[in-house]
Amino acid sequence: MEPMVTDVGPQGCLFNYHVTAHKPTAVRHCAVGSFTSPNETNLVIGRSTHLDIQVLTPEGLKAVQTVPLYGVLSALRLFRPKVGSSKRGSSSSNRRLRD
Asked: How far apart are CA 14 and CA 70, in angstroms?
């Protein structure tokens, strides 16, 4: 269980912050796509307060990066923005692209 700690700031204000003793191990979300490079296949794993990026190699999965998150991950989806589009909110730029 992750404790919630209450702290009193310099002006007497209360602050809450989230503390974890260990890195999370349970996978909450995952996505497969080209994240680090257009020529590589990546597995992006969301583990509550961490984001793990792995690359698929002939030998198997290889860890690329682990990023701690401030907060808890609630959703994960890869997307590819339309190249050369500067309009925001147009229906063509909101379409989901599939590999």
From this structure: 19
CA dist., res. 38 & res. 70, Å (int):
28
Rg of the chain over all Cα atoms, to the nearest angstrom: 18
As given in the structure block, the two tokens for residue 9 are: 């700031």
What does pTM read for this prediction? 0.60
C-alpha closest to that of 22 among 6, 2, 4: 2
Tell me the pLDDT tens digit for each residue of 3-51: 555 555 566 566 666 666 777 788 888 999 988 888 899 999 998 888 9
Read off the tokens for 36: 């680090």
- Is the Cα dihedral 33, 37, 43, 48 positive or negative? negative
Rounded CA-CA distance 8/87 in Å is: 45
